[in-house]
Amino acid sequence: MLDGRRRSVQPMAERLPDGDEQNLGQFVNQSPWDPGADAAAERGADGAADRLGCLGGKMSVGVGHQHCGALGKQANCQVAVTMHAVSEDPGSRLLQWRPFLPR
What we know:
Protein name: Putative IS701 family ISAzvi8-like transposase
InterPro entries: IS701-like (IPR039365), IS701-like_DDE_dom (IPR038721)
Region (Disordered): 1-45
Radius of gyration: 14 Å
Strand order of the largest sheet: 1-4-5
Strand content: 25-35%
Domain Transposase IS701-like DDE: 1-37, 57-103
């Protein structure tokens, strides 16, 4: 989605014309993504596993003291494992994501 190094909601919202981070965050969090994964699989898209940056919070589901790639160290954070469609065009398309639940 658009050029840029980080694929979290805040940097993506900053690159959009209206820049509404709350609306984009709500769209990403409440949208069903399975149909996109099926469509990409039919087109033969390649997938690459990745981890999103950490999201802070003590009372949220999945928060644990674990490695946070965005910070480059261990911290109390949430981590999501993502699957992206990768093509020759710049960027990638988010197909699926699941929270990583520490034990």
